[in-house]
Amino acid sequence: MTSSVNTGARIGVITFPGTLDDVDAARAVRYTGAEAVPLWHADDSLQGVDAVIVPGGFSYGDYLRAGAISAHATIMRTVIDEARKGLPVLGICNGFQILTEAGLLPGVVMRNSGLKFKCRDQWLRVENTNTVWTSRYEPGAEILVPLKNAEGRYVALPETVAELEGEGRVLFRYVGDQPRQGNPNGSLNDIAGICSADGRVAALMPHPEHAIDALTGPTDDGLGMFLSLVDSLLKV
Amino acid sequence: MARVEVAVVIKSEILDPQGKAILGALGRTGHPGITQVRQGKHFDLEVDDSVTDEELEVIASSLLANPVIETWEIRRLPS
């Protein structure tokens, strides 16, 4: 643990059947000094948390479409209501798929263009550092975090992509030279992560929660997302 | 009771890498005449008499298909 200070912030982490990365997401929360509150997909209460993380994995085995069934889970109705009132929500990997299927973020995340499961440490550029999830990063910062998915190709209508670009809602972009870096999956405009108009609902395919400590990840570059959130909660 | 078929397919303007992989396999297995494959999903629903066409449309558009990337066709079958 890097921090033993209890900041008083309480951050929920949802577990669906088939979720894998809730444990690492909770660990990332604790590294910031905040309390990680486990939330269960079949409950309707968010237990008064200050923010919610929808973690990665293969909820419902990716049946139907990745994230489609979880998007209709009982807890997601509450998450959608509270997100529309300003509750910060972060979707990671399968969480990104769930948030698009739930309509909280535009577009869809589809099968990688090369059909391969991609697993590697991936360079990303932080494109917008004015959100509750990215304020700790320097503008244009490049970070290295793990990426691991078969369905990471971001797709949206051309007008949606233009709107995201125009409003600074592309939060993270894949960078670096092919074949080992750069766009891993055919994502439109190299998009790795996006956010809502107010920046409070955000999602990305790579995994910041796996890069919070050089002992267990490639870097600690991902910790900035969780620290950014806690900063914004303590300021309120 | 009645049977309803819902066919879901990825829109033509959206890249369908699975369809492309199948097309490649068809070319390699002696079927060069196939020029396009788009992979979709097929659902068979058993529905009772209370289920209206409007309800089926809601089911297809909100769960079975994602309107951003897919189109669908609903067909009631004679029981």
CA(first)-CA(last) distance of chain B: 8 Å
Structural category of chain A is alpha/beta
Number of distinct helices of chain A: 5
Main-sheet strand order of chain A equals 2-1-3-4-11-10-9-6-7
Q: What is the global morphology of chain A?
A: globular
The beta-strand count of chain B equals 3
Radius of gyration of chain A: 16 Å
- Low-pLDDT residue intervals, each spanning 5 or more residues of chain B: none
Question: What form of chain B results from the Cα inertia axes?
Answer: elongated
Alpha-beta content class of chain B = alpha+beta
**How far apart lie the N and C ends of chain A?**
25 Å
**H/E series of chain A:** EHEEHEHEEEEHEEEH
Give the biggest sheet of chain B: 3 strands, antiparallel
| Model regions low in confidence, pLDDT < 50 over at least 5 residues of chain A | none
Summarize the structure.
The complex is a heterodimer of chains A (236) and B (79). Chain A has helices spanning 22-31, 74-84, 94-101, 158-166, 223-235, and strands at residues 10-15, 35-40, 51-54, 89-92, 108-110, 118-126, 142-149, 153-155, 170-174, 191-195, 201-204.
